[in-house]
Amino acid sequence: MTDTPAGTSPHADVSLRPIGEDDLPVITGYLADPAAVGPFQWFGWPDPHRWKRDWAENGLLGPDGGRLLVTRGAESAGFVAWRKIPSATSFYWNMGILLWPQARGHGLGTQAQRLLVRYLFAHTLTARIEADTDVENHAEQRALEKAGFTREGVLRGSNFRDGQWHDSVVYGILRTDPQPTP
């Protein structure tokens, strides 16, 4: 990761962009490394060809969800993802983020999630975006709160990881909520 020039924010040049085919080896490499994804995102060995198939199908951007690369300057820092959750009469988005180990702890996640919220509200009709994280993932909870999300509750036993069920914290943000500026 490059150093930030003096007097600038460490996330001043964070952006989101479509994932290119040449990004896939880096992403799948990180996803296949339990230490790289971290204890809250390791769910076992992933299908090594899934991302390539999904990219060939729609460039990882479709009507039911998508994935964008998080970059800092020219460097890949991770990715954000969202998926459509149907409701009785419409839908909302559930979103998530995975940053590479060297990108964590610098505010990039908060900024990337703010950018994704702005993108989804600007380009889709949804009124709600939600995110969830493990109850023990305090760093992600802080990042979501800084990104403007409201803690809404705990889903008990909702996530199976490492041989046991874990609770998740649900956060939400509405189109009508004040939006923090990036």
From TrEMBL:
Lineage top rank: taxon: Bacteria
PROSITE patterns attached to this UniProt entry: GNAT
Gene3D superfamilies xrefs: 3.40.630.30
Domain N-acetyltransferase: 14-176
Protein name, as recorded: GNAT family N-acetyltransferase
Lineage of producing organism: Bacteria, Bacillati, Actinomycetota, Actinomycetes, Kitasatosporales
